[in-house]
Amino acid sequence: MSAEDLLEKIKVIIREEESVEGADVEKDAAIATEGLSVSYNGRLAVEGVNLKFRSNTITAIIGPSGCGKSTVLRSLNRMNDLVPGARVTGKVLFRGVDIYSKDVDPVFIRSRIGMVFQRPNPFPMSVFDNVAFGLRVNGFKLTKDEMKKRVQEALIKAALWDEVKDRLDAHAYSLSGGQQQRLCIARALAVEPEVLLLDEPTVSLDPISTSKIERLLVAIKHDYTIIIVTHNMQQAARVSDYTAVMMTDENLVGRVTEFGPTKEIFTSPKDQRTEAYISGRVS
Amino acid sequence: MGDQILIRDQVDRRRSDLKRWLDRIVPVVLSVGVFFGVTVLAALVVDVVLEGSHRLSLNLITNYPSANPAEAGMRSAILGTIATVGLSAVICIPLSIASAIYLIEYAAGKRWAEVLRYNIANLAGVPSVVFGVVGLGFLVYGLGVGRSVLAGAFTLAILTLPYVTVTCVEAIKTVPEDLKFGAYALGATRFQVVRSIILPRALPMMLTGGILGISRAIGEAAPILVISGLLFIREDPTSLFDRFTVMPLQLFNWISRPQPAFRELSAAGIIVLLLILLALNSLVIYMRYRLYRRLEAT
Lengths: 283, 298
Fold this sequence. Notes:
The complex is a heterodimer. Chain A is α/β, with parallel strands linked by helices. In chain A, 39% of the residues lie in helices and 24% in strands. Chain A has a single domain, classed as 3-Layer(aba) Sandwich (Rossmann fold), CATH 3.40.50.300. In chain A, helix 1 (3-16) runs parallel beside helix 10. The longest helix of chain A has 14 residues, at 3-16. By secondary structure, chain B is mostly helical. Chain B has 2 domains: 2-55; 59-296, MetI-like fold. In chain B, helix 8 (190-219) runs antiparallel to helix 11 (260-296). The A-B interface holds A 77, 79, 82, 84-85, 107-108, 110-112, 114-115, 117, 119, 121-124, 133-134, 137-138, 170-171, 173-174, 184, 187-188, 191 and B 108-109, 176, 178-189, 192, 196-197, 200-201, 295-298.
């Protein structure tokens, strides 16, 4: 498939999607960054990121490898705190509060902003216990029945319930890769976060599993704010309402080069390098 | 053109000849190492069994040491070993696990934690008699604990602490980062991650390290010789402040006597010591198997 064909295909996908006209991103931002920069051991990785993620939409962050997409994502729920040598400056506003201000507890932030990782990482325990894990560590006082109900709801949202309802006690490792990843989504949803971050969630999965996950994301977006990092541009086009494109400059520092409704990004990119990237001339 | 191909062909063949030769010689070299160890051990065991097996009797375990080899036993030494080594394990294993968790999970990435970690590894190489002297100076005289079971147990505990801590650190490192991040991302606290993710996965290896540490403590004579100084005791240790002796010291006592009967007794004692070690190691293997099976159960 040539680059032009690919771009054409993406445009078709976009047109089929519902349009997101009249979006007032300013007002509805569930989470926003202001002048976000991240460095690792003194080396700047990402600089000056200003993004507003609108409530109940899916925003994709795309860009070539090493441009800092995952770094930005990890800054949104303070997972970078766990990386030795990482330093975050600037603001990340969640419900208007800077999550990096001193009186904010990162543990609380992570329970409100869930995350799904590149490779499925279920815990070495049963399917049920995996989903219940978040509820237990967050100190939810639930009866057995309430717990069962919450686990079931999360598994239904993650489109996994039908496949595992008869084997909730089975070890999570007995599931397929795609099922494990949906289990990780269910695990994150069970805590009922407001924002769900996904870091290239389908990169290790086959096309069928990928499509299942994409469909479930679109299905649940009305209850959450979803931010997905991907380097699969067709995936961004298929699932997202907004797209941010990141590129590295000559010093390998990542920046956002373009941000807006997905439709506009893919049909009329303003930035030359963005255009080159999404039409496949730069990878 | 044709010449070039020919040359490359020869080079390739020579290199693959070398590789094949290396491939054949390496296992031979490696197995020499194994055979050397096994042969020495086998010779030792055979020698000990030949000399001591006819002295193996219940008396050996139930009687106190005596000047009459026919009645001599190592009851006080066995009890002394059980008391000191058992207590040292109770002190050492939790401390080691706690230090390892602190160093890896709480002080991660801090320069001083790295320095501390390498120094702990160095401590594992300090001669055991040095720990004995430290115990004598600090515990026996400094704190006035006396030449007691308590002093012996603490000395053995600090002696095995570095080794066990190092294995606990390695055990924690085997827990995949993925799993920890997964738990943190759900809003788990550091302690919750340690308790529900790290410990269940690292515990089998930690216990292995702990019990290997105990095995080492059982065989230690030098530090106990400094602490206890006694080779001949005809009393059970009944409290933490009683004087005591241990099996290696009892064996040392017997070996150093001129009569051949005592040499045979010491051989029999070595068999008892080896059996206890064997039992402990089997326990480790069994526990590890049980814990892993629970972890990987489907």
